[in-house]
Every structure is written in C-alpha cells, then in structure tokens.
Task: structure prediction
Amino acid sequence: MSATRTPGPSLRPALLVVGLAVFLVLVFGIGAALTTNSPSKPAAPRRVAGTGLVGEPAAGPLRPIEILGTPPSDVLDALRLPEGSRAVTATKWNGSTQYSAKMTFQVGASQGALLRFYRTSLRARHWSIVDVGPARGSPGAAEVLAQRASTDGWFWEVGVVALPTTFGPGATRPDVTRFTVDLYEMPDAS
Result:
C-alpha cells in the first residue's frame, strides 16, 4: 500500500506569510539600523559672526557647577564659551533653594567683543535675550541676561557679566576680560 496524502489545507499560504514577515523584519531592521542617530557629538567650535571669537561647547567647562544632572543637559548644551576661556572660580549651588550657581572665566578678548559674542550665540542657541546693559553693583561691567525653557519643566536664566577689559603693556600681552556665567532655575518666564 502506498501512502497517499489526504486532501486538506495546505501549509504553503502559512509559509508564505511567515516568509513575508521575516522579509519585512529584515528590511525595516536594516533600515532602522542605518538611520538611527548615533549619540550626539559635541558641536564643533564655530566662529560667532561679528565678534572674531570662536564658540566652544560650555557643558564640559561648566561641569564644576553641575550637581546630579542640574542644570539639565539641554541647558548646558545651549551655552557656549569663547575659545581660550580659562576657568578662574566656581561657586556651586548649595541646594537650599532653587538652583543658582556661577563660574568666573577670563579670555583674551575685549569686553565689547565678549558681549557681542553672548548676544549672538545665545540667540542662535534659542535663548531669549531679556536684557543687555550695565551690570548692577559692578562699576564698568556689562551684562547679557537671557532665558529659555528646559525639558525639566523649569525656565532657566543665564547672566553673563563682563568686567572691564584689562590691557596688556605694549603689543606683547593680549587684552584680558574676566566674565561670569551665572545660571538660575526659575519657576516661570519673567
């Protein structure tokens, strides 16, 4: 007796569906792998128009005032420092109120160039300029005050206060300007 197959449903349509599913998973998996964003790289330094200064990411240099993810990365990533800025002091947040901390830097540039740098770079990085003018309580100093919303649900303010430029003797020493970068967490836009 020969074995004959009894008539009934065929497995071919089911195998066709499984084969199509495997094909789609492979196609979309490869496509996703090719289009997935790699971890963001720090932005390359870029010349800030009208200043002669090059802006570098500030997140690394501002690390001494970062505590447990505060300020959030979207705030720090939106800040730049002029290339060649050197940290002088850091005043950390003490944790007793809303965040407030600052760092002092110095850079070989004039006060005017530094203020133009911050007005331009903060606008370009989606900060709203709130005020530009003389700094309160510091004769000869000027400030740029800006604000932005953050992913942490708070508004953040940055105040950059540029002290008067000191001029080196003759042409052998460059001009030096000290400036502070103050960061404040705000409950709402003011």
Q: What stands out?
A: The first helix runs from residue 12 to 35. The beta strands are 46-48, 53-57, 80-82, 86-91, 100-107, 128-134, 142-149, 155-162, 177-186. Residues 39 and 174 are 38 Å apart (CA to CA). The radius of gyration is 28 Å.
